[in-house]
Amino acid sequence: MRARSIRGRLAADPALGAGNVLSTLVSLGVDPDEPTLTFDTDVDGHPAWKPLTLGELDRAVATRSAGLHALGVRPRDPVAVYGVTAADQMLSFLALVRLGAIPALVNGNLRGAVAARYISGLKAVGVLADAASWSRLAEHDPGAPLLGAPDRIDGHRPSDAPAPYRHHPDDPIAITHSSGTTGEPKAVTSTHATLFAAIRHRLSVPRAQGADRILCALPAAHNATLTALNLALGNRGEILLLSAQDGGTVVDAVRRWRPGMVLGFAVTWSQLAHAELDADDLESVRVWWNTGDCAHEAHIRRLVAVGSHDVATGKGIEHRAGSMFVDGLGSTELGHSQFHITHRADSDRFDRCIGRPHLFAQAEVLDPSGEPLPAGRVGQLAVRSPTVTPGYWNDSAATYRTRQGGWFLPGELVYRTEDGYYHHVDRAADAIDLGDGTHVYTALSEDRVLAACPEVLDCTVVAVRHGTGVSTHVLLRLAPGADPAVDRTEEVRAALRDERVAATVRRVAVVPEEEIPLGATGKVLKAVLRARYSSAEATAP
Amino acid sequence: MTGEIAEFIIQALREMNYDVEDLTADTDLGPAGLDLESLALAELTVQIEDTYGLRYSDEDTEALAVLTVGGLAAELAAKLAVASGDKPQ
Predict the structure, then answer these.
(1) pTM for the whole thing?
(2) How many Å apart are CA A285 and CA A273, to the nearest integer?
(3) Where are the alpha helices (H) located in A310-395, listed in sequence order?
(4) What is residue A367's three-state secondary structure?
């Protein structure tokens, strides 16, 4: 069956969802010898970096399903997966959904105490973890027994697995966690339908350039990785899943595997932009695809300068130097990016532009009373979309707190331009109202500092309110060779482009990387920094 | 106007070596019908832009990709009418 016909058939199949893409491909008779999925670790004796064919993948999954079924795992059982490799996370996900169970993927970077508290709240029936990961959990009581290692398959055969579970669109197929702005992750439910709505859309439009060979540098336990996997399966393209997301690992993997598209979060682009990028190493990349928080202009500009892509012209298709960067805004709760904008080397629409809503999404900007705001006014982003989570697992209070008037409010501040493009300015929790109609928007400030100060490689802005006003702290990481002793306060104030915001800048400091607290997915924990600086303000003479 | 534009689209697809024999206004541009590659859709869009003096951004083409041949012709006719100051039919 040709790729073009299978995509259309999948998009039109009402029973297809995020829980049964693999078993559907097998039942449709897709060639089992097609190279499909590559891991960076060995799988059941199959070497790392060698693609698993569709048939080999199906057998690895069915063997794990047989083993889990023998252990007593049944439909609707939440099972936590705490592991550090992409293979352990993804094969456990596929094996558990094949049984109709509910995989709860836990990022292996979460500290044992945090992970145990999180798993305890899930009321899971058991935990799949390798020995080292389990030892980090066990001393903190995760409230669920160890079922075994994710790759424990001894004595089981694929043919012992029960028939693939038949999911209803509303059936939960995964619990994944947000990074948690305070460091405490929140458990987000995805269903057979919510985590497939965007994929169905993308299977029904032309396959994007580079999508035949996708390198996924997203954290393996994130629901965006589940979407990447299911999309690649449906597209009948190849995908490589990485177990680490740092810039060096990603550059090495691009050099070795030659992807057409690289998927990642903003933190990876930031690290890539710091690295010495060798154009020859990255020549295969046509598209960098960002999800989660939107990326910074300075980082995007560095990446679109490398790679290459095809362009349609009046004289046919031309292959050009430079890649494309697709930016957007998504989150675990949103289930998929809700916006998209394509940047190229000649792009000029920045200032945290996240583009237009995807066709499947409806967006609005609301004032505090829930009324829509006109173009140009900053307010809460509100989204209606088939990709949005039905809620937080075991936490109805948190679920309903995020809903207003039928909208889902992800807690992001945005404005819309007259021509329908949206710009993100900050997370609502991080912004501070100066009381005269002006606000300190920390994310927008970071973007402006990075764009205007070439010696600054990365920037974190935190604003705290104190008795007499607002203090803004600007923490910098500098390019190699830049002098850390130079006072950059005036350069930073000018970059902020607003005198009232600039006047709140209390400290501009070059700080070592380890001074910035990060969540499991690499996101800066600004609440932790605010608490640190608030107590410093309180004790200042 | 829509019929004339549809003829232009079909001719452009023929020149791009697509089989237009059984093509109707209801044929999808996407995988359920013509199954255009993203570059083929971009090529078709460039021809439309050059011929009719319209401009489509990367973000616009997502909305074109889900249309049928007839739907695309109607969308172009509406955009041309707006561009020339008329109300779309």
Answers:
(1) 0.95
(2) 15
(3) none
(4) coil
CA pair distance A230, A403, nearest whole angstrom: 28
Buried b (16+ CB within 10 A) or exposed e, A452-483: bbeebbbbbbbbbeeeeebbbbbbbbbeeebe
Q: Cβ(A95)–Cβ(A61) under 8 Å?
A: yes
The predicted-structure confidence for A104-140, as pLDDT tens digits, reads as follows 999 999 999 999 999 999 999 999 999 999 999 999 9
Mutate to test the interface with A, among B28, B59, B61 (most CBs of A within 10 A): B59
DSSP per position, A279-307: TTTTTT--EEEE-SSPPPHHHHHHHHTSS
Q: How far is B42 from chain A (nearest CA, A)?
A: 6
Chain A: residue whose CA lies nearest to B68: A205
The counts of H helices and E strands in chain B are: 4, 0
Other residues' Cβ atoms within 10 Å of the Cβ of residue A486: 11
- Smallest Cβ–Cβ distance between B66 and the set A205, A207, A310 belongs to A205
The arithmetic mean of pLDDT across residues A167-183, rounded, is: 89
Three-state SS at A194? coil
Q: From the CB of residue A224, how many other CB atoms can be counted at a distance below 10 Å? A: 26
Report the interhelical angle of A223-235 vs A3-11 (nearest 10°): 130
Q: What is the C-alpha to C-alpha distance for residues A424 and A185, in angstroms, rounded to an integer?
A: 23
Instruction: Classify residue A532 as exposed, middle or buried by CB count within 10 Å of its CB (0-12, 13-18, 19+).
Output: middle
Q: How far apart are the first and last CA of chain A?
A: 74
**pLDDT band for position A274 (cuts 50, 70, 90):** confident
How far apart are the C-alpha atoms of A243 and A247, rounded to whole Å? 12
